[in-house]
Specification:
- The protein is α+β, with helices and mostly antiparallel strands.
- 44% of the residues lie in helices and 25% in strands.
- It has a seven-stranded antiparallel sheet.
Length: 186
């Protein structure tokens, strides 16, 4: 009974691992084809914090998770990620500016002395901060490295395949021994 439950749990975990790897690979390939595409899973996007402009809320090396949002729902004090040229910035909304039928957002980094120079139009907003993973950016950078890729992708696959091969060989050997012992009894 316990073996059946453990086998079922390991199969579910293997399935989840395969799904995560496939989604990661698809997102990675999309990101390489289109540098302005930010990989997304179920509307959530992850990215590392590179600067200290949002200290103490966000530290360099943290990983942030951004949730896509209807820009009409952005409020003052929300932390949003947006495009400025070809770079992403994550700052706090300090004012919502309505003028000429258009809405734009004034932003400021928590650690900065002055507000950002340009107003942000809704089409530049990527999403709102959902949560942060302290020091998660360091982990992501390690996983992207050669050693991290081997440790987090190649090694688990080799271990899983090795376990399956061992199981098949054990079953074949047990079947041969059973057949051999049946032949001896005759």
């Amino acid at each position: 009974m316990i073996k059946t439950i453990l086998k079922w749990i390991s199969n579910v975990l293997l399935g989840l691992l395969i799904i995560i790897v496939v989604i990661s690979l698809i997102s990675s390939f999309k990101g390489r084809k289109d540098p302005e595409h930010i990989p997304s899973v179920l509307g959530f996007k992850t990215m590392p914090v590179l600067t200290g402009s949002m200290r103490p809320v966000l530290e360099p090396g943290d990983m942030i998770v951004i949730k896509q949002i209807d820009t009409k729902k952005v409020k003052t004090n929300d932390v949003i990620t947006y495009w400025i040229g070809n770079k992403l910035v994550t700052h706090r909304v300090v004012e919502i500016v309505n003028g000429n039928g258009n809405t734009s957002f004034r932003t400021k980094g928590d650690a900065n002395n002055v507000e950002d120079g340009k107003l942000i139009s809704p089409d530049k907003i990527v999403g709102r901060l959902a949560y942060k993973i302290p020091k998660g950016g360091y982990i992501t950078n390690f996983i992207k490295s050669g050693k991290g890729f081997v440790l987090f992708f190649i090694l688990p696959i080799v271990l899983l395949l090795g376990g399956e091969i061992k199981k098949v060989l054990f079953e074949v050997t047990a079947k041969k021994e059973k057949n051999h012992s049946d032949d001896m009894e005759v």
